[in-house]
Amino acid sequence: MNRFAPIAILALSACTNPVREAPYTTEVVPIEKAGGFACAAESVQYAIGQKTSAELGSKLVAQSGSASLRWLPPHSMATMDYRADRLNVHYNDDMIITRVNCG
Fold first, then answer.
1. How would you list the strands of the sheet with 86-91, edge to edge?
2. Per-residue pLDDT band at 56 (split at 50, 70, 90)
3. Pairing between strand 68-72 and 86-91?
4. Which of 4, 37, 55, 79 could pair covalently with 85 via S-S, beta carbons 3.0-4.6 A apart?
5. Which PANTHER family does this chain map to (predicted)?
6. What is the domain class of 38-103 according to CATH?
7. Which tens digit of pLDDT belongs to each residue from 28-55?
8. What are the residues whose beta carbons fall under 8 Å from the beta carbon of 84, sequence distance 6 or more?
């Protein structure tokens, strides 16, 4: 039994993963460098309670600094991907804006 112990230990040590440092580093890129668009939903919160319209949508995009606008109707599905340059406008069945956020 004792003569198989060194072989068993050697075999078990071969099953472990070696610890290695990551060969790369990550860098946080500020939004200005990434594309120049940053959504500022705080600046367009006044739209909550207003009726949706194409004109209002254009105004919200311009004032928030976002690159795109996504209208989110009630009872609909939306992708969960986060985009820092997109303004989301949620509205209810009466076409009244209920929430404005980035993503």
1. 68-72, 86-91, 97-102
2. very high
3. parallel
4. 37
5. PEPTIDASE INHIBITOR I78 FAMILY PROTEIN
6. alpha beta
7. 545 554 455 688 999 999 999 999 999 9
8. 31, 37, 38, 39, 102, 103
